[in-house]
Amino acid sequence: MAGNHNFGRQLFTDGFVKNPYPVYAHLRETDPVYRTRFPDGQQGWLITGYEEGVAALKEPRFIKDFSKLYGGSMEGMSVFTQNMLFSDPPDHRRLRGLAQKAFTPRVIEGMKERIEEITEELLDAMEQKEEINLIDDFAFPLPIIVICEILGVPSEDRDKFRIWSNSLIEGSSGEPGVSVYQHMNDFIRYLGEWFGKTRQQPKDDLISKLIEAEEAGDRLTEKELYGVVTLLIIAGHETTVNLIGNSFLNLLKHPEQKELLRSRPELIEGAIEESLRFDGPVEFSTSRWASEDFHFASKEIKRGELAIVALNAANRDPGRFTDPETFDISREKSPHLAFGTGIHHCLGAPLARLEGKIALGKLLERFPDLELRVPESDLEWRPGMIVRGVKEIPVMKKPFTP
Question: CA 126, 263, 108, 99: dihedral to nearest 10 degrees?
Answer without folding.
Answer: -80
